[in-house]
Amino acid sequence: MKNIVKKYGDGFPAVNDISIDVADGEFVILVGPSGCGKSTLLRMIVGLEDITSGDMMIGDRRVNDLAPRERNLAMVFQNYALYPHLTVYENIAFPLRLAKADDATVDEKVRAASKTLELDEHLDRKPANLSGGQRQRVAMGRAIVRDADAFLFDEPLSNLDAKLRGQMRSEISRLQKKLGITTVYVTHDQTEAMTLGDRVAVLKRGILQQLATPRELYSNP
Ligand code: ADP
Ligand code: ADP
């Protein structure tokens, strides 16, 4: 992200000249209070929101004008957007079916992804019969089979109780390291920010206030 600005109407910019360079495989958290601009920034990365000015780059590609489907990113939503009538297998396979992949390719990719995500024993289940953590992994599986260049999370844990949130936090962290996939994660929760990411971007009223490792933030809050 280079000098990214978002203005809605004439008011104060929702995102005000933000530059963040996310390294390949890195896990970056966008954190800040409600209204600081973090969802707007995430939506501009994915392509769901127009960018007023600045350059959004993926690798050496400028993607400002690319549609979401052309950006090859995978957004993991709060409710995971799983299809309730489809099995785990078919939920993970879904993007490949859309892309008209042949059955052998689908099978190979779905099995590889479900093995990595430790879902191989649950392939015949429906989402209603899964735990929250397993559902999250199905959502990630969908992203993996598409070979997405990055995961984007928008407050995925905010509807969960404290205990489950703690479990899922360590699970997301573990899987992200295992997959080595570049990740940008939006939260207003300071614990998540300080425990999940390699680096934390602290936003306030659309401005990037700090961009540092959790360790640096602890010693220099
Ligand atoms: P956060 O995700 O940190 O809660 P948002 O990115 O949702 O913050 O919002 C940042 C600012 O932009 C807020 O002041 C919000 O009111 C404003 N905003 C967000 N979406 C819109 C919109 N569609 N139209 C006008 N203003 C918006
Ligand atoms: P359609 O628009 O054809 O009904 P979808 O809306 O499911 O199909 O997906 C269209 C495109 O949107 C996909 O090819 C993909 O690039 C993008 N897309 C779908 N789901 C996600 C997601 N969770 N995160 C990011 N991009 C997505």
UniProtKB/TrEMBL annotation:
Organism whose genome encodes this protein: Nocardioides psychrotolerans
Annotated ABC transporter domain residues: 1-221
Entry's transmembrane regions: none
GO biological process per UniProt: carbohydrate transport
One GO CC term, this protein: ATP-binding cassette (ABC) transporter complex, substrate-binding subunit-containing
MF-aspect GO terms: ABC-type transporter activity; ATP binding; ATP hydrolysis activity
Keyword annotations: ATP-binding, Cell membrane, Membrane, Nucleotide-binding, Sugar transport, Translocase, Transport
Coiled-coil intervals, chain numbering: none
Descriptive protein name: Multiple sugar transport system ATP-binding protein
